[in-house]
Design a protein that fits this description.
- By secondary structure, the protein is α/β, with parallel strands linked by helices.
- The chain is built from 5 helices and 8 strands.
- Helix content is about 25%, strand content about 20%.
- A hairpin with a 7-residue loop joins strand 6 and strand 7.
- The radius of gyration is 14 Å and the shape is globular.
């Protein structure tokens, strides 16, 4: 089975701070699945490292609907990059026939179920990141780690 996965969970240094989020549970998936790494933020054109970003005014679904934005801590609107990266991740999943995706928890692109609230205070709210919202709208199951 082919599974698209956040590259940072496999140890790729693509997080906003230049680090990774290597996850042993995710790494163990290589025993039973073909993992296809993706970083929606880098695919959207953002550099690593980059300023932290959060969704302001809603969640990823609201970003897709045009009623919320993704903003950096210094006030730069990076919504277009997040949308581009989300569409790239969808294209990767569809081209590989992946029906399941494993993404990084709490990320403004990859978060699933919980994301930061847009105040850069560390407060979590219910909601999905931009990539997760787009994948779910296309019937792809998403799990966060």
């Amino acid at each position: 089975m082919k599974v698209v996965i956040s590259a940072c969970l496999l140890g790729v240094r693509c997080r906003y701070d230049g680090g990774h989020s290597r996850n042993e549970t995710a790494m163990n998936q290589t025993k039973t699945h073909q993992l296809i790494p993706v970083c929606p933020e880098e695919s959207g054109g953002l550099l690593t490292p980059r300023p932290p970003a959060e969704i302001v005014g809603g969640d990823g679904g609201a970003v897709l609907d045009g009623t919320a934005k993704v903003m950096t801590a210094n006030g730069t609107d990076v919504t277009a990059a997040y949308l581009k990266g989300a569409h790239h991740a969808l294209q990767v999943a569809q081209s590989h026939g992946a029906t399941h995706v494993i993404l990084k928890a709490r990320s403004p692109s990859c978060g699933c179920g919980d994301i930061y609230d847009g105040t850069f205070s560390g407060t979590l709210i219910s909601g999905d990141g931009v990539t997760t919202a787009l994948l779910k709208r296309h019937g792809i199951a998403v799990t966060a780690m």
